[in-house]
Amino acid sequence: xxxxxxxxxxxxxxxxxxxxxxxxxxxxxxxxxxxxxxxxxxxxxxxxxxxxxxxxxxxxxxxxxxxxxxxxxxxxxxxxxxxxxxxxxxxxxxxxxxxxxxxxxxxxxxxxxxxxxxxxxxxxxxxxxxxxxxxxxxxxxxxxxxxxxxxxxxxxxxxxxxxxxxxxxxxxxxxxxxxxxxxxxxxxxxxxxxxxxxxxxxxxxxxxxxxxxxxxxxxxxxxxxxxxxxxxxxxxxxxxxxxxxxxxxxxxxxxxxxxxxxxxxxxxxxxxxxxxxxxxxxxxxxxxxxxxxxxxxxxxxxxxxxxxxxxxxxxxxxxxxxxxxxxxxxxxxxxxxxxxxxxxxxxxxxxxxxxxxxxxxxxxxxxxxxxxxxxxxxxxxxxxxxxxxxxxxxxxxxxxxxxxxxxxxxxxxxxxxxxxxxxxxxxxxxxxxxxxxxxxxxxxxxxxxxxxxxxxxxxxxxxxxxxxxxxxxxxxxxxxxxxxxxxxxxxxxxxxxxxxxxxxxxxxxxxxxxxxxxxxxxxxxxxxxxxxxxxxxxxxxxxxxxxxxxxxxxxxxxxxxxxxxxxxxxxxxxxxxxxxxxxxxxxxxxxxxxxxxxxxxxxxxxxxxxxxxxxxxxxxxxxxxxxxxxxxxx
Length: 634
Known about the structure:
By secondary structure, the protein is of the alpha+beta class.
């Protein structure tokens, strides 16, 4: 039979559609392969559906999709054994529908001025092939029993096409790309394999790319030792049934851990995971893993991969996953997340917000479940997971409402308390004269040990809040907890940390207090130190150097670029120097023979206070050591 040839023009309103597709539609040329293989998967799944409902009675056979390349001929071919197309269907789906979408794209592009703003409903995936090809051929044979002829469609990137009869033995579609000179990088086995593994790793239909050699057992020798031979097998680059597509009921912990190793081969085992499976009011599946983060806050974002029907889309998921959970690892798969036309950018809409809220709820539910199920085990995990929880409490009010039941406060003795438990523990002894419960904390238990011990001597408890987020967390908690103030343990002397009605009596007269203050002012000679003689317990240090909680927080905010507090960053540190008027050293200073000796002893007591906070350096430290030797020898 003589071949029938049909030539024509694709009916669109512009001659410039291909330059626009090439320049604006797909910024990353490699995704042409994702689009073509995804189309092949769609065609295959449509055939499976028709078979399942009785509209296709033939044998499905091997449905493997194959990707081939020929470096000499400069072609890349994507072949499927799916539903196929008749000549009329090619005209409908390739010439009319896709290009009507292209026309709409052009109109929208003119209005918007930025391809990123265009919502992905144009059906242009197939035409991404023209980014890398001078000519594209389609050879297709329909699954329909009465369709014995195949059809060939050719287009060179203009609006002209040619449609002819073709010879094709098997059902399905071959898309042949004749690669242009600028895109010869894609005629490379490792380049193509890398693209397929990136975008098609979990496609629901097996994808073959070349072959590989494997060693398989081939009997035993005379001594009973196994013998091996090398065989050539198809290289299947994807796992068609990834873990997130299965029911959690049929999976064991080992399955989740093995899948994590498949995703992140060099990572430590995760702490736990959440298997998502939602079908209303949106579709969402996936597995989110909690990695070990610790306190160094090495944020490794872009570890959550977003898929749409098992096709990799992006690892930029900030609009789908709440910011405080961006450190999680894993997979999310949803066909309901709107993408722009190139699938490269997420579009914010109601569904994205609902999905984000659902993920927040599921994470909170999982943490609550772990806390209730095994409190001790939860406490062991707390040092690894608290950074997620604290970030969530700071940034998401709804998460705080759920998290306040299982969030823990850890004190410097390594004991853990819920918010309610801790308030009960400290409210009797740590309530001030204004009925405020004062929480004391240390940001560095090693450096602040003398202050911690002084607080403990008063019967106070001290929390350990030494994380990178804790300065924000403290502010957030203070706003959320009723009648509560949070103070760093070195922000005041132990007597003044929690102001009570009763005060220690001073053993010094007012005249002696003035004399002591004058001696220390001469010894210190530092305008950034505010001196005061205070009546403290004789057991306290002779001199205590503190920075007020207010001043410290202002400076912390300035370091973080805190808007109206930025001016604080240029200001010098201001400290309070509390001289313990009830300490024996102060009496010794007053009784010294002459003023020089009094100033020397005052300087020594002051330097001891600096040394206790690692604030004594350089020549001051050298002079302190020399002075200590002299005073000890006397």
